[in-house]
Amino acid sequence: MSSKRDQIADQLEFLRDIGVDSLDIQVRGNSGDATRIPAVQVPAPVPEISTEVMKPSSNPDLQSIRDEIGDCQRCKLAPTRTNIVFGSGNPRAELLFVGEAPGADEDEQGLPFVGRAGQLLTKIIESIEIKREDVYICNVLKCRPPNNRPPEPDEVSACNPFLRKQLAMIKPKVVCCLGTFAAHTVLQSTVPISKLRGKFYDIDGIRIIATFHPSYLLRSPDKKREVWDDMKQIRAELQRLRT
Ligand code: URA
Fold first, then answer.
1. DSSP letter string over 208-229?
2. Whether the predicted model's global pTM rises above the 0.85 cut
3. Is the CB of 113 under 6 A from ligand 1?
4. Residue in 80, 13, 79 with CA at minimum distance from that of residue 46
5. Which of 79, 89, 85 is CA-nearest to residue 100?
6. Domains of the chain and CATH, by start
7. Is 27 buried (19+), middle (13-18) or exposed (0-12) by CB count in 10 A?
8. Residue 214 and residue 151: Cα distance in Å, rounded?
9. CA–CA separation, 235 vs 142, rounded Å?
10. Cβ(139) to ligand 1 under 6 A?
């Protein structure tokens, strides 16, 4: 479990990465004026993800979907997977993230987004003052494709009904699709992610937005600014939907 200090350092690092170079900080006990201070340079500790908060939910309804998946043999990914990665987080989340498919770390641990991309996703979530344990995170595919190759249509057909059931059960207010594959599957579109991202779509009463995948951001950090714009839209939309 990382300390509060490490968490703040991580957050500052992400904000700096996405181009935020100063912060308005309200000094407690002051006359009330916000004091604008430059964002401090902080060392970049490797954040540990606490798997404690990410244990698969004990929510009985979600568990019924997990039970239905069982020891799934519905597609050709079954023989090569170590664990089925169902999803984790708050079963009553207002905000749900959908990724593509588990990678090696996720396959090993049975939890979504626990590798490097997951560490970045945690920072992205926290950038809008939401805790990772308060959202729900899952993938289109619940099993790892060998060597992280792209999911194939028969695998999506076998797995997509379970994502749909998770969405219907959790009923999030906002779904954020991470990357091309999740966006194309959820939005049933073939429009490039660079065009799809940054705006909301409505499906079955849920507000859907797409943004770049954290793995892509690791390769193209200059795209973090767009993700930051998308996250601000999500924050504003959640606020709007609460009022
Ligand atoms: N990438 C994904 O799309 N999902 C994960 O769970 C991890 C990496």
1. EEEE--HHHHHH-GGGHHHHHH
2. no
3. yes
4. 13
5. 85
6. 47-242 (3.40.470.10)
7. exposed
8. 17
9. 28
10. yes
**pLDDT by residue (tens digit) across 56-68?**
445 778 999 999 9
Q: Please report, in angstroms and rounded to a whole number, the separation of the first and last CA atoms in the chain.
A: 34
- Report H helices in the chain: 4-17, 60-69, 104-109, 116-126, 153-170, 179-187, 193-196, 214-219, 224-242
Ligand 1 midpoint to CA 148 (Å): 10
Residue 135: Cβ within 10 Å count: 20
84, 100, 119, 176: which to mutate for ligand 1, most atoms within 8 A of CB? 100
Collapsed DSSP state (helix, strand, coil) of residue 138: strand
Q: Which tens digit of pLDDT belongs to each residue from 199-238?
A: 999 999 999 999 999 999 999 999 999 999 999 999 999 9
